[in-house]
Amino acid sequence: MQFRGELDSARIVTVLDDYAGYETSFLAQHGIAILLEASSGGVCKRVLLDAGQSALPILHNLEIMDIDPGSIDAIVVSHCHYDHTEGLVEVLRAVGREGIPVIAHPTMFRPNYIFKPFIRNIGVTGKNGKVAIEEAGGLLVLVDEPFEIMPGVIVTGEVPRRRAFEKQGIGTYNIEGGKVVPDEIRDDLSLTVKVKGKGLAVVSGCSHAGIVNIIDWCREIAAEPRVDLVIGGFHLIEASGERIRETAQALKQLNVGRIVTGHCTGLEALCEFSRILGDRFEQLHVGTTIQL
Questions:
Q1: Please, how many CA atoms are within 13 Å of residue 207, restricted to the half-sphere of its CB?
Q2: What are phi and psi of 212, to 5 degrees?
Q3: I need a labelling partner for 135 at 20 to 30 A (CA). Which of 185, 212, 221, 226 fits?
Q4: Model pTM above 0.85
């Protein structure tokens, strides 16, 4: 299915990132939360992508930005990992209403393990499980295919992994039928946004599907070849130098207008993006605000 809806305007606000920015009173934490303000036909809706590993810095930063958490209309969870989900129920409580859509992949609630330096579940914990979400006012919407939450705002669903250089795991595992199996993080979702007269904006959490795969998929499902903005984490912090270079070159070849990344992207990738992409690239930080 293809979607051709458009927004009149949009604003993207970084509420949480690993970096608080220079000379700010914002709080930073390993994690990410990005707020989309989407306007169409005189209606403005606020959609939060991810909820960090704690609501405390998110709510603190929203207060500084003079954004009422009660104005959040929906939450999209990019994937199961703790640095994107641990603040979820607390944020829902701060929203303080019933029936807030919480949009995620159907497999989000699986235990997800790492074994170094010791076995640990880095997935959704019980305090943010299905029951807790619903008790806090969340309405779970679990989808694995593209899903338009309003005209011009699409949740990608599961992203096809077509670029060979992005088919790499990150060392997380699931337990299936009593066996430990490598996890492909198929629950990785992103947002794509289309404003009238503009190319796409792609908003990611960690880009475990591969940021270039995500861009390819967004262009396909939105039937729009132009990409004006890509913002979020790219999870290249442990990637090989070759993969980082191929990612930077692909972003250049796709003619992405602006690349804003941080969180799990890593210093080596940030330096390579700066070298190859020049002034198209900037480092993400709390308070980064982009008007579309």
A1: 30
A2: -75, -40
A3: 185
A4: yes
